[in-house]
From TrEMBL:
Subcellular location as annotated: Cell outer membrane
Xref: InterPro entries: Gram-neg_bact_OMP, Gram_neg_porin_domain, Porin_dom_sf, Porin_Neis
Membrane topology: Multi-pass membrane protein
Organism of origin: Paraburkholderia caballeronis
CDD domains linked to this entry: gram_neg_porins (cd00342)
Protein name according to UniProt: Outer membrane protein (Porin)
Porin domain location: 15-363
Subunit structure: Homotrimer.
Keywords of the record: Cell outer membrane, Ion transport, Membrane, Porin, Signal, Transmembrane, Transmembrane beta strand, Transport
One BP term from GO: monoatomic ion transport
One Pfam match: Porin_4
Length: 405
């Protein structure tokens, strides 16, 4: 299946500038990057946790189609089909020049490892866990973008905001259409190998027009028994918890997060393909958590992609998310999201895009304190996690330009 891999593939095989290393004739280093800027509109914007005071906003948005970044990736041929590889990648905002994550020099990826066509690839560092790597071909973000098209708040981690520190990832070579991957992230907490760790696994199949993947991940809070997200947690972004949105805001003190996902796709012809996903997400409380009952969200989504001409790509998608009845909530939160995207390639490296989305939330959820019950509010994709709607509805629009180098 021919897909975009906006957050991973660009890091490994983007437009390149090759520089020969002086000591090794079989070594290369690639400088690559993406610059993406646009103008966006949202119908209601407020602070996270608020259910009032929202106002419409028009602002410059960066990284809508592809996250803006620059990076270095390289390989050295060690002989016998084995190569040493590395990637260093930093996200940034071309709107103001700021780093994507303050305090992290290579916030997106920073890893080194070995690869062999017969034995697979082993890497170590800050990188994407196996769950993301195996499921990404069937994620809604490929054509709808993560900013607008990720399932609400990227609850199920099918975008790539859940990067894991101190991570070992092994990915097997492809055999009869199958590929396996497993990862483990070490938190290094004294006296405990489990606290703060992350582990994930996944299997992927792709042969001809059909493909599918299954993945599982568990993220453990380094704070014993749950509570404030510990800085030693391996999915920490310079101490901050990833994926906090209006959907999960009341559950930040979970002792652990678990995600299970199934994705599949079928390519009908060179112009039309379809992908679908089902995910189950669980936030598990501990003795120190603000909420008492396990919270569960189930999400189903589908994306239709149409390529009528070489320069054009169109896509539409729908997803439905439903929370469990728990923590005193009898009217569980529900989120329905509708997406459209249009892309026009000016060249192989430069394109213009437009994206549109609408989300409707219903039911109740927990407030910031993890105890009070409030109305569920809309939060499109994962680009509005810190500025969700104050009401059950939200409209988002954006147009922009993206250049790869």
């Amino acid at each position: 299946m021919k897909k975009h891999f906006p957050e991973v593939k660009a890091a490994l095989a983007g437009a390149a500038v090759f520089v020969a290393l002086p000591a090794f004739a079989q070594s290369t280093v690639t400088l690559y990057g993406v610059v993406d800027n646009g103008i966006g509109y949202q119908s209601s914007a407020t602070t996270l946790g608020s259910t009032s005071g929202g106002r419409s906003a028009v602002k410059m948005l960066t990284g809508v189609w592809l996250g803006s970044r620059f990076g270095l990736t390289g390989a050295e041929d060690l002989g016998g089909g084995t190569k040493a590889i590395f990637t260093l990648e930093q996200g940034f905002s071309p709107a103001n020049g700021a780093m994507a994550t303050s305090g992290l020099m290579f916030s997106r990826q920073a890893f080194v490892g070995m690869t062999n066509d017969r034995y697979g690839t082993l890497t170590a560092g800050r990188q994407y866990a196996s769950y993301v790597q195996m499921l990404l071909p069937y994620s809604p973000v490929n054509w709808l973008t993560g900013f607008f098209g990720a399932h609400p708040g990227d609850l199920d981690g099918l975008d790539t905001i859940y990067r894991a520190n101190n991570t070992l990832v092994y990915t097997s070579p492809k055999l009869y259409g199958f590929k396996f991957s497993g990862s483990y992230s070490l938190a290094g907490v004294p006296g405990s190998i489990n606290r703060g760790s992350t582990w994930a696994t996944g299997i992927q199949y792709s042969q001809g027009p059909l493909g599918f993947a299954v993945g599982f991940s568990r993220i453990n809070n380094s704070t014993s028994g749950g509570g404030p997200f510990g800085v030693d947690s391996t999915t920490s972004n310079a101490g901050a918890q990833a994926g906090v949105s209006a959907v999960t805001n009341g559950y930040q003190t979970a002792q652990a997060q678990q995600r299970f996902a199934v994705g599949a796709g079928y390519t009908f012809n060179s112009q039309f393909d379809i992908t679908a996903t089902y995910t189950n997400v669980q936030y598990i409380p501990g003795v120190g958590s603000s909420f008492r009952d396990q919270a569960v969200w189930n999400t189903g989504g589908v994306v239709l992609h149409w390529k009528p001409a070489a320069a054009w790509d169109f896509a539409t998608g729908y997803s439905y998310t439903r929370a469990s009845r728990a923590n005193g909530i009898t009217s569980a939160a529900q989120y329905q999201q509708f997406n459209l995207s249009q892309y026009y390639a000016l060249s192989k490296r430069t394109g213009l895009y437009a994206v549109e989305a609408y989300q409707r939330a219903n039911g109740k959820t927990l407030g910031t304190d993890g105890k009070s019950i409030i109305n569920a509010t809309a939060t499109i994709g994962d680009g509005f996690n810190s500025t969700p709607s104050s009401s059950p509805s939200m409209v988002g629009l954006a147009v922009g330009i993206v250049h790869r180098f």
